[in-house]
Protein backbone atom coordinates (compact mmCIF):
# COMPACT_ATOMS: atom_id res chain seq x y z
CA UNK A 1 0.00 0.00 0.00
CA UNK A 2 1.20 3.49 -0.84
CA UNK A 3 -0.73 5.06 2.06
CA UNK A 4 -1.19 8.81 1.62
CA UNK A 5 0.64 10.30 -1.36
CA UNK A 6 1.20 14.04 -1.66
CA UNK A 7 2.57 15.85 -4.68
CA UNK A 8 4.59 17.92 -5.23
CA UNK A 9 7.11 17.72 -2.36
CA UNK A 10 8.41 21.23 -2.98
CA UNK A 11 6.96 24.22 -4.81
CA UNK A 12 7.85 27.87 -5.26
CA UNK A 13 5.08 30.20 -6.41
CA UNK A 14 4.93 33.86 -7.21
CA UNK A 15 2.36 35.99 -5.43
CA UNK A 16 -0.96 35.75 -7.27
CA UNK A 17 -0.27 32.42 -8.94
CA UNK A 18 -2.61 29.49 -8.45
CA UNK A 19 -1.81 25.87 -7.90
CA UNK A 20 -3.24 22.59 -6.66
CA UNK A 21 -1.64 20.38 -4.06
CA UNK A 22 -2.56 16.78 -4.72
CA UNK A 23 -3.41 14.19 -2.09
CA UNK A 24 -4.39 10.58 -2.76
CA UNK A 25 -4.91 7.63 -0.44
CA UNK A 26 -5.41 3.97 -1.30
CA UNK A 27 -6.77 2.76 2.05
CA UNK A 28 -10.45 3.50 1.37
CA UNK A 29 -10.45 6.03 4.18
CA UNK A 30 -13.60 8.11 4.50
CA UNK A 31 -12.01 11.02 6.34
CA UNK A 32 -9.38 13.23 4.72
CA UNK A 33 -7.98 16.57 5.80
CA UNK A 34 -5.40 19.24 5.03
CA UNK A 35 -3.16 20.90 7.62
CA UNK A 36 -0.52 23.57 7.50
CA UNK A 37 2.53 23.61 9.74
CA UNK A 38 4.10 26.92 10.66
CA UNK A 39 7.02 27.59 13.05
CA UNK A 40 5.87 27.89 16.66
CA UNK A 41 2.36 26.76 15.86
CA UNK A 42 0.72 23.38 15.94
CA UNK A 43 -0.70 21.72 12.88
CA UNK A 44 -3.73 23.79 11.91
CA UNK A 45 -6.69 22.33 10.06
CA UNK A 46 -7.51 24.00 6.74
CA UNK A 47 -10.31 21.86 5.33
CA UNK A 48 -11.60 18.37 5.87
CA UNK A 49 -13.92 15.85 4.27
CA UNK A 50 -15.96 13.07 5.88
CA UNK A 51 -16.66 11.37 2.56
CA UNK A 52 -16.93 11.83 -1.19
CA UNK A 53 -18.95 14.93 -2.02
CA UNK A 54 -18.72 16.36 1.51
CA UNK A 55 -16.24 19.02 2.60
CA UNK A 56 -16.09 21.51 5.43
CA UNK A 57 -13.88 24.28 6.75
CA UNK A 58 -11.35 23.95 9.50
CA UNK A 59 -9.55 26.60 11.57
CA UNK A 60 -7.79 28.43 8.73
CA UNK A 61 -9.74 27.97 5.47
CA UNK A 62 -9.31 31.43 3.91
CA UNK A 63 -7.46 31.40 0.60
CA UNK A 64 -7.95 27.67 0.05
CA UNK A 65 -10.54 25.56 -1.76
CA UNK A 66 -11.07 21.82 -1.70
CA UNK A 67 -13.26 19.24 -3.39
CA UNK A 68 -13.80 15.52 -2.86
CA UNK A 69 -15.16 13.93 -6.01
CA UNK A 70 -13.80 10.46 -5.14
CA UNK A 71 -12.95 8.65 -1.91
CA UNK A 72 -9.30 8.49 -2.93
CA UNK A 73 -8.48 12.11 -3.83
CA UNK A 74 -8.63 15.35 -1.88
CA UNK A 75 -6.86 18.19 -3.71
CA UNK A 76 -6.17 21.56 -2.09
CA UNK A 77 -6.33 24.62 -4.33
CA UNK A 78 -4.65 27.95 -3.77
CA UNK A 79 -6.50 30.40 -6.03
CA UNK A 80 -4.19 33.40 -5.63
CA UNK A 81 -1.09 32.59 -3.60
CA UNK A 82 0.07 35.03 -0.94
CA UNK A 83 3.35 35.09 1.03
CA UNK A 84 1.31 34.27 4.17
CA UNK A 85 0.61 30.88 2.61
CA UNK A 86 4.28 29.92 2.74
CA UNK A 87 4.15 26.81 4.89
CA UNK A 88 4.47 23.05 4.98
CA UNK A 89 1.22 21.36 4.04
CA UNK A 90 0.19 17.90 5.21
CA UNK A 91 -2.63 15.75 3.99
CA UNK A 92 -3.96 13.16 6.43
CA UNK A 93 -6.59 10.46 6.31
CA UNK A 94 -8.42 8.21 8.73
CA UNK A 95 -10.93 5.36 8.32
CA UNK A 96 -13.60 7.48 10.00
CA UNK A 97 -13.74 10.84 11.75
CA UNK A 98 -10.91 9.74 14.00
CA UNK A 99 -12.33 9.20 17.44
CA UNK A 100 -11.09 5.62 17.32
CA UNK A 101 -8.38 5.77 14.68
CA UNK A 102 -5.23 7.79 14.29
CA UNK A 103 -4.36 9.72 11.21
CA UNK A 104 -2.11 8.49 8.42
CA UNK A 105 -0.14 11.47 7.17
CA UNK A 106 1.38 12.18 3.79
CA UNK A 107 5.01 13.23 3.49
CA UNK A 108 4.21 16.92 3.19
CA UNK A 109 4.53 19.68 0.60
CA UNK A 110 6.86 22.58 1.31
CA UNK A 111 5.42 25.67 -0.37
CA UNK A 112 7.19 29.01 -0.69
CA UNK A 113 5.34 32.03 -2.03
CA UNK A 114 7.60 34.89 -3.11
CA UNK B 1 -8.03 26.60 28.06
CA UNK B 2 -9.16 26.97 24.49
CA UNK B 3 -6.28 25.20 22.83
CA UNK B 4 -4.25 22.08 23.26
CA UNK B 5 -1.10 22.90 25.20
CA UNK B 6 1.99 20.75 25.57
CA UNK B 7 4.84 21.05 28.01
CA UNK B 8 7.71 21.26 28.06
CA UNK B 9 8.43 22.67 24.59
CA UNK B 10 11.74 20.85 24.46
CA UNK B 11 13.62 18.37 26.54
CA UNK B 12 17.13 16.93 26.54
CA UNK B 13 17.71 13.71 28.45
CA UNK B 14 20.56 11.26 28.77
CA UNK B 15 20.27 7.82 27.24
CA UNK B 16 18.67 5.50 29.78
CA UNK B 17 16.73 8.23 31.60
CA UNK B 18 12.98 8.01 31.86
CA UNK B 19 10.93 11.06 31.00
CA UNK B 20 7.38 12.32 30.62
CA UNK B 21 5.50 15.13 28.92
CA UNK B 22 2.11 16.73 29.43
CA UNK B 23 -0.76 17.51 27.10
CA UNK B 24 -3.53 19.77 28.45
CA UNK B 25 -6.82 20.28 26.68
CA UNK B 26 -10.35 21.59 27.24
CA UNK B 27 -12.36 18.86 28.96
CA UNK B 28 -15.63 19.84 27.27
CA UNK B 29 -16.84 18.26 24.02
CA UNK B 30 -14.22 15.52 24.21
CA UNK B 31 -14.15 12.59 21.80
CA UNK B 32 -10.58 11.35 21.77
CA UNK B 33 -6.98 12.26 22.48
CA UNK B 34 -4.25 11.21 20.07
CA UNK B 35 -0.49 11.06 20.49
CA UNK B 36 1.85 11.19 17.50
CA UNK B 37 5.57 10.77 17.08
CA UNK B 38 7.19 13.04 14.49
CA UNK B 39 10.76 12.44 13.45
CA UNK B 40 12.66 15.11 11.55
CA UNK B 41 12.08 14.96 7.78
CA UNK B 42 9.30 12.42 8.19
CA UNK B 43 5.54 12.54 8.72
CA UNK B 44 3.79 12.23 12.09
CA UNK B 45 3.01 8.63 13.04
CA UNK B 46 0.16 7.68 15.34
CA UNK B 47 1.20 6.28 18.73
CA UNK B 48 -2.00 6.13 20.75
CA UNK B 49 -5.68 6.92 20.49
CA UNK B 50 -7.44 7.24 23.84
CA UNK B 51 -11.12 7.86 24.40
CA UNK B 52 -12.07 6.95 27.96
CA UNK B 53 -11.22 8.67 31.21
CA UNK B 54 -8.56 6.61 32.94
CA UNK B 55 -7.35 5.01 29.70
CA UNK B 56 -3.79 3.75 29.77
CA UNK B 57 -2.02 2.64 26.61
CA UNK B 58 1.42 1.11 26.18
CA UNK B 59 3.67 0.39 23.22
CA UNK B 60 7.07 -0.98 24.18
CA UNK B 61 8.80 1.58 26.40
CA UNK B 62 6.23 4.29 25.69
CA UNK B 63 2.97 4.63 27.59
CA UNK B 64 0.23 7.21 27.98
CA UNK B 65 -2.53 8.03 30.43
CA UNK B 66 -5.69 10.08 30.04
CA UNK B 67 -7.74 12.19 32.45
CA UNK B 68 -10.70 13.66 30.59
CA UNK B 69 -12.31 15.21 33.67
CA UNK B 70 -9.36 17.48 34.37
CA UNK B 71 -8.23 17.69 30.76
CA UNK B 72 -4.73 16.24 30.61
CA UNK B 73 -2.75 13.34 29.26
CA UNK B 74 0.77 12.20 30.10
CA UNK B 75 3.20 10.45 27.78
CA UNK B 76 5.95 8.44 29.46
CA UNK B 77 9.14 7.05 27.94
CA UNK B 78 11.04 4.54 30.03
CA UNK B 79 14.79 4.15 29.49
CA UNK B 80 15.07 6.70 26.67
CA UNK B 81 17.15 5.72 23.63
CA UNK B 82 18.64 7.98 20.93
CA UNK B 83 16.06 6.64 18.45
CA UNK B 84 13.32 8.12 20.67
CA UNK B 85 14.51 11.59 19.64
CA UNK B 86 11.53 13.19 17.92
CA UNK B 87 8.74 15.68 18.45
CA UNK B 88 5.75 14.23 20.26
CA UNK B 89 2.41 15.76 19.33
CA UNK B 90 -0.93 15.41 21.00
CA UNK B 91 -4.24 16.21 19.35
CA UNK B 92 -7.73 16.59 20.72
CA UNK B 93 -10.57 15.26 18.61
CA UNK B 94 -13.97 16.94 18.94
CA UNK B 95 -15.77 14.79 16.40
CA UNK B 96 -14.88 15.99 12.94
CA UNK B 97 -11.98 18.23 13.85
CA UNK B 98 -8.59 17.77 15.44
CA UNK B 99 -6.72 20.42 17.41
CA UNK B 100 -3.00 19.81 17.68
CA UNK B 101 -0.57 21.04 20.28
CA UNK B 102 2.79 22.50 19.26
CA UNK B 103 4.61 19.40 20.44
CA UNK B 104 7.41 18.47 22.82
CA UNK B 105 10.78 18.10 21.14
CA UNK B 106 12.78 15.32 22.78
CA UNK B 107 16.51 14.87 22.27
CA UNK B 108 18.13 11.81 23.80
CA UNK B 109 21.86 12.26 24.27
CA UNK B 110 23.95 9.08 23.87
Which secondary structure elements does this structure contain, and how are they paired or packed?
The complex is a heterodimer of chains A (114) and B (110).
Chain A: E1 4-7, E2 10-13, E3 19-25, E4 31-37, E5 44-51, E6 54-57, E7 64-66, E8 76-78, E9 87-94, E10 104-105, E11 109-113
Chain B: E1 5-7, E2 10-14, E3 19-24, E4 32-38, E5 45-50, E6 56-59, E7 62-67, E8 72-77, E9 86-93, E10 98-100, E11 104-109
Parallel strand pairs in B: 2-11
Antiparallel strand pairs in B: 1-3, 3-8, 4-5, 4-9, 6-7, 7-8, 9-10, 9-11
Brief summary:
Chain A is mainly beta and about 110 residues long.
Measured between the Cα atoms of the first and last residue of chain B, the distance is: 37 Å
Total number of helices of chain B: 0
How confident is the prediction overall: mean pLDDT of chain B? 93
Structural class of chain B: mainly beta
Question: Could you give the count of β-strands of chain A?
Answer: 11
Looking at how many chains there are and whether they match, the oligomeric state comes to: heterodimer
